[in-house]
Amino acid sequence: TGAPLAYMSANILSAYRTGAVPGVGFKYFAREDAKTVGIIGPGVMSKTAFDAAMAVRPGIETVRIKGSSLTSLSAQKFADRVRRKYPSVRNIEIVATEEEAVRDADIVEIATSSPTGDPSTYPYLDEAWLKPGAVVACPAAARFDDDFILNRARMVTDNIMLYEAWADEMPYPAYETIPIPAVHCMDLIHDGKMTRDQIDDLGDILVGNVPVHRKQDEIVIYSVGGMPTEDVAWGTVVYRNALKMGIGTRLNLWDQPALA
């Protein structure tokens, strides 16, 4: 009938869904003995992504956090949260630069709030800073050298069709509007510099159509565009569980339909 089943403030649900998708990448691509995580942009997305990292790589011992400054409130809150939730993480550092955050990191999460329009202003990671075998999750703006993307990095997307749709719908170059690395890859394909088969899709990897690793010590750049349709699916599970548990507040939409 189109009548609503439930009203939810789904901010927490959506935040954990956003973090869970990088977590799947960490589960498959990160070293089994991962010890160090680099965080660039210690906001909500990085908090839930770090929770996911700890769920799949509980041996993590060191976290390096790059906020807007050494005294940024968000970085301090992130560090305090790690100390409170994960006492096994023995080393927590707030650092001044992206390089300090990612040097020797097995897992990198980069999720900053960056203005769009000029890719030269997006957070930049130099290949030389990245540890062999590292996985870099990019649910927000990030920039790498084209030579690295084209010739040495392993490019993976959470859903390749999402990026193809953005390439069709957004003015070229789409990377100026949507600053996720795989969007830049679509621009490189448009320019004839890259081919579609240089990008792997997470779904193909999960079902075994593509190998989890193509070569030893590859650096994985994992673009996470996000699929809010998953919020609807998970919200449905939450709704059904609430019915079973008898929790929540029942709302009466009307006493009598106005036109019946």
Report what the structure shows.
- With 260 residues, this protein is an alpha/beta fold.
- It has one domain: Rossmann fold (3-Layer(aba) Sandwich), CATH 3.40.50.720.
- Helix 1 (11-29) crosses helix 2.
- It has nine helices and eight strands.
- The two termini are 14 Å apart.
- Strand 2, helix 3 and strand 3 (91-95) form a beta-alpha-beta unit.
- The protein is 38% helix and 13% strand.
- It has an eight-stranded parallel sheet with strand order 3-2-1-4-5-8-6-7, sandwiched between helices.
- The mean pLDDT is 95.
The tally of domains stands at: 1
β-strand percent reads 5-15%
CATH superfamily: NAD(P)-binding Rossmann-like Domain
Low-confidence stretches: none
- Along the chain, the helix and strand elements come as HEHEHEHEEHEHHEHEH
Task: State the total count of DSSP E strands.
Answer: 8
The best one-word shape is globular
From the N-terminal CA to the C-terminal CA, the straight-line distance is: 14 Å
> What is the rounded Rg?
20 Å
The secondary-structure class comes to alpha/beta
CATH class annotation: Alpha Beta
The count of helical stretches stands at: 9
Q: Architecture in CATH? A: 3-Layer(aba) Sandwich
Biggest sheet, spatial arrangement of strands = 3-2-1-4-5-8-6-7
Round the mean pLDDT to the nearest integer and report it. Answer: 95
